[in-house]
Write a structure and sequence with these properties.
Length: 126
Amino acid sequence: MIHDPRIGPNYTTADLQDLQLLQRQTRTALVVLESNEGTYTSLRRFYNEQITPLLERNLLTLQEAVSCRQSLRQFVSQLDELIYETNMHMKCLVAVERAYSERMTLVCHYRTLPNVFIFGKKGLYR
């Protein structure tokens, strides 16, 4: 970026390409987080729907069943935390991606300014 005090910043093509790369990387990270969130949710659903009924069949001793239920609750609780954190990161990345998009619009706008003539107190500026 080159700054001309008469017309403001003059962004280069490299600046625009850097923003495009950052936006692409942000979108890729968002896809990975969405995939992880889906995996965590599927795991949680599986353990709630498949393992809980097995525990209710009385195949284990009372002590084993209590221990297994406690372990299951801890595991599902950890999955809930992972799902919550993943959703928080996804919301953050959506905001970052939006900021990159807005910055790209700004850079594109400023890249067209050098071709525009501006009238100032000292005359015509290019």
